[in-house]
Amino acid sequence: MAQTPEHILKEAILLEMKGKAFYQNVAEKSDSEAAKKIFQMMADEEDQHILFLSKQFQNYKKNQKFEKPAEYVEHPEEEIALKVLTEQLVKETNAASFEASAISAAMDFEKRAVKLYKDRAEEAVDPFEIELYTMLYKWEMGHEKALHEMNEMLREDIWNDNNFWAF
Question: Alpha-carbon distance 55 to 48, whole Å?
Fold first, then answer.
């Protein structure tokens, strides 16, 4: 049975709220300054997703249609800041740390969001709904990619520290 647009929007808002709570919690509990900043940035972005989705939900509930989503443009300095913070994170933590575990869990959150939004973008017929979910799944793919890179850097760091390489 196909899910209604309202149901998908509610599910998406709830997923974003869970992600925000998780990221906020990691930011508060981490001993790494870099991790605090990275996870706070992600919590703030989840807030933006919640706003995008809540606005669409309210409009859909009222008018039974989607409105053109506001354009989101990622600032290039955010990507640079994230790279610097990732390098700092690797220096401040290790692959078996709380932060590394949080990165793995965050990757799962982002994968679920990407799947939900990508699937809905492919199923939807309303052009604004398609645009909304396409924008969101690309945004979440960026999060997933950044988390994957952090995870790989931490893994490589621990392998190098423990002489896992044969050469």
Answer: 11
pLDDT band at 59 (very low <50, low <70, confident <90, very high): very high
CATH fold label, 5-161? Ferritin (1.20.1260)
What is the pLDDT, as a whole number, of residue 79?
Answer: 73
Check if the beta carbon of residue 90 is closer than 8 Å to that of residue 35.
no
Query: In 3D, which of 72, 67, 28, 27 has the Cα closest to residue 48?
Result: 72
> CA 161, CA 166: separation in Å to the nearest integer?
13
Altogether, the residues listed in the chain come to a count of: 167
Q: What tokens appear for 91 in the block?
A: 């220096």
d(CA 34, CA 93): 9
Asked whether 63 and 57 are in contact (CB, 8 A), the reply is: no
Give the SS3 label for residue 56.
helix
Distance CA 101, CA 80 (A): 24
Please give the DSSP secondary-structure letter assigned to residue 68: P
The residues spanned by each domain of the chain are: 5-161
